[in-house]
Amino acid sequence: MSEVQTKTTVRVRLNVNGAVHELDVEPRWLLSDVLRHQLGLTGTHVGCEQGVCGACTVLVDGKPERSCLMFAVQAEGHEVTTIEGLTPEDGLSPLQEAFQAHHALQCGFCTPGMVVTAAALLRDNPNPTEEEVREALSGNVCRCTGYQFIVDAVLAAAKEGRS
Ligand code: FES
Ligand code: FES
Predict the structure, then answer these.
(1) Disulfide engineering: 157 pairs with which of 62, 98, 109, 113, CB 3.0-4.6 Å?
(2) Given ligand 2 and candidates 105, 151, 154, which is best to mutate, with the most ligand atoms within 8 Å of its CB?
(3) Whole-model pTM?
């Protein structure tokens, strides 16, 4: 009689916000769920779980990715940055301050994904046009703000040379 395979988890080493975590995860677990439930990084929000809303956006090797479309095991060997990793220990980043100053959030559900995406934009393109900001954020859905204030905030942060 062959031996029954009972082990359902695998050990992964995830580099998240500059810290390496050794975790036992099931291969089917999503990166978004592991970030939230194993690492307690609940700033990464989960809305659609289908790659549509962008709420779960994190940086993978510096590039915005939907963490609900990745298995956690796929993140091994890559650098993952969440909204927590973009937030100073004390207070807010300049981009986050711009969101606050320009009333770029209401319920805040979309905001971490927006900020992560906008931070990557401003890193690569420090002086974007309004059209470029809208294009960069086109994969992030907001049900509250009507987007204008979000665009205003990103442009204001760019104008001040801050992200
Ligand atoms: S929760 Fe990942 S794109 Fe909506
Ligand atoms: S602020 Fe509510 S979904 Fe964007």
Answers:
(1) 98
(2) 105
(3) 0.94
